[in-house]
Amino acid sequence: MRIIIALSIIGGGILVGVPILIMYSRRRRADKLRRRGIKSYNRSPRPATTQTGQ
């Protein structure tokens, strides 16, 4: 019974902690890019488009 309670507490911590860490890492990455002067820090990476002057 103690093992089940312990595992449920650990599982609950993981379920709450992982999304918080993801949000924190995204915010930190955006902050780093903003400090470097990159204005498109909220955009998802897009493939490079080549324009031909036709």
Structural features:
single chain; 54 residues; mainly alpha; 1 helix; 65% helix; rod-shaped
Large-scale geometry: rod-shaped
List unreliable stretches of 5+ residues. none
Structural class: mainly alpha
Work out the strand percent: under 5%
Helix content: 55-70%
Q: Spell the H/E element sequence.
A: H
Mean pLDDT: 80
Secondary structure tally: strands? 0
Oligomer: single chain
Give the radius of gyration.
Answer: 20 Å
Describe this structure in words.
The chain has 54 residues and is mainly α. Helix content is 65%, strand content 0%. The protein contains 1 helix and no strands. It starts with a helix and ends in an 18-residue tail after the last helix. The mean pLDDT is 80.
What is this structure's SSE topology?
Elements: H1 2-36
Kindly summarize this structure in a few lines.
With 54 residues, the chain is mostly helical. 65% of the residues lie in helices and 0% in strands. The model has no long low-confidence stretch (mean pLDDT 80).
